[in-house]
Write a structure and sequence with these properties.
15 strands; 6-stranded parallel β-sheet; 7-stranded mixed β-sheet; alpha/beta; 319 residues; globular
């Protein structure tokens, strides 16, 4: 099979397209999937530079989210040869074949193609868990989303709008602000002056912050009484802090959402979240894909994310 492997963890330039044997099954519960599309995200940019908390020995195949069809499935897995599926792997997705744990595999919704399916795995599942499980979002509440033109941010906008929230978005460029509107935001701000505007409009009930840094610190001040701010990452590179007295005086809460870590401790979470997402797809949600690249051009795709040039999700096609 073709596989895009990291030979030197120095970034996209350390990747090489190799022809390798399909690896053996990691255990008797894994499902072998013919990968048709693989999502590319911010975590992948960290992994290829050796900056993520998981650091495989080189050479290794990055890639966390796949869509394709089942080739081999163990008895009792609930899957059979030929089933169209989406799945999450902790590396191994940037290849023509991947082994996926059965509990991190779900049917591909018939309304989605493989590219859309791969685009939905990490970002839309994270968005659902952040909004429903962690923030306890209720229909009619106001949600502020930072980084709303990126892959994760646009997914949060889509999911929040689909759940009946009024969405206020912050995005850094005209292209990304246009994408936030397409995703369902009713109010869109640029990187300057958004906090004053949100205050003047009465604040928000929920803030979702993928970027960390000053956006998080200012976001706390934008919460209405009993509001919740959810941190889902630190793409700005700076991990923010907030003092407890601000939470006490304002009667607000800070919660974290680490989707991958929850999958490790909550049995069935991947499948249950996939079913919730399917209901939103039934109602018309479609993942927003910025661009697709052939597997051989994976380095270009990763650089597009590192350069913050993507508006929406980046996907590799493998077959």
């Amino acid at each position: 099979m073709r596989a895009l492997r990291v030979h030197d963890p120095t970034g996209p330039e350390g990747l090489r397209l190799d022809e390798i044997d399909v690896p053996p099954a990691p255990d008797d519960r894994a499902v072998r999937v013919a990968v048709h599309a693989a999502g590319v995200g911010f975590v992948d940019t960290l992994m290829v530079r050796g900056r993520y908390q998981v650091r495989p020995a080189v050479p290794f195949v990055p890639g966390l989210e796949v869509a394709g069809s089942v080739e081999v499935a163990p008895d009792g897995s609930g899957f059979a040869r030929g089933d169209p599926v989406v799945g999450h792997v902790m590396g191994g997705g940037f290849a023509e074949t991947a082994w996926v744990p059965a509990d991190r595999l779900a049917p591909l919704h018939p309304a989605l193609d493989a590219v859309q399916g791969a685009a939905s795995v990490v970002n839309h599942q994270t968005a659902l868990v952040a909004l429903q499980r962690r923030a306890r979002l209720r229909p009619g509440e106001r949600v502020l989303v930072h980084g709303a033109g990126g892959g994760l941010g646009s997914a949060v906008v889509q999911v929040a709008a689909a759940l009946g929230a009024e969405v206020v978005a912050v995005a850094g460029s005209d292209e990304r602000r246009a994408l936030a509107r397409r995703a369902g935001a009713t109010t869109v701000h640029g990187p300057d002056g958004w906090a004053d505007a949100v205050h003047a409009a009465g604040g928000v009930d929920v803030v979702v912050v993928p970027v960390g840094g000053a956006a998080f610190e200012q976001g706390v001040g934008c919460l209405a009484p009993e509001g919740r701010i959810v941190t889902v990452g630190f793409t700005s590179g700076r991990i923010p802090t907030v003092t407890a007295d601000r939470l006490l005086r304002r009667n607000v809460a800070v919660v974290g959402c680490a989707w991958r870590e929850l999958l490790d401790v909550v049995p069935g979470l991947f499948a249950e979240t996939a079913r919730r997402l399917d209901r939103l797809v039934d109602a018309g949600l479609r993942p927003l894909v910025d661009a697709t690249f052939d597997l051989a051009d994976g380095a270009v795709a990763l650089r597009r994310i590192e350069d913050r040039a993507a508006a929406g999700k980046i996907v590799l096609t493998t077959r």
